[in-house]
Amino acid sequence: MKSIIPYPVSYLVSKLIFTIAFFRTPLKVYGRENIPKGSVVICSNHAHGNDPFYIVYSFPFWDKIRIMAKEEIRHMPVVGRLLDFLGIAIWVKRGQSDLGAMKLSMKTLKKGEKLLIFPEGTRHDELGEGKTGAALMAIRAKVPVLPVYVAPERKHFHRVKVYFGKPFMPFTEDRKPTAEDYQKATEDIMAHIAAIRDSREEMEAQCRK
After folding, report:
1. What is the pTM assigned to this prediction?
2. Which own/partner pairs from 103-106 qualify as long-range (CB within 8 Å, at least 24 positions apart)?
């Protein structure tokens, strides 16, 4: 659904509603300087249903992000309504090849916008195995991947920490990629997310300097 409210306004209003609904204080973001301008496929771990909001609200309000999200989420009372209010969700029908969602996602990247995909496809307490969809999008659109790690810890009235790694090109060879290339790129994406997870203390220490 396309929001009739300008994105910066819906961003600020929904962020306030989200903060109240989930008892969260403002986010703590590390590595924000790694966010590139223009098109990028944002790839993150996925431990909780409200993770998309922590990532979206880690970006400035003028930097609109589209999210590939399961159609079932649309019916969730808070998360689904907020995503529709923001007008940023690309709803994907689970268990089938949703060509419409794929085309809209590719169009998003070709327009110079950012696209958020959770490579695991579903929630995991720890990092799970990635699926090739995110790598396929980035490679076909010839845009970089921005790896992100959202700390899974959740406490009322405590900040949720979001860490941005450095963007990278998942495929650089001058030839048509194969199924093996997509699989290798997917493994690289998950490895970059894991590397951010394992270097969180270093990133926090660097921020304190």
Report:
1. 0.91
2. 104/66, 105/66, 105/68, 105/137, 106/137, 106/140, 106/141
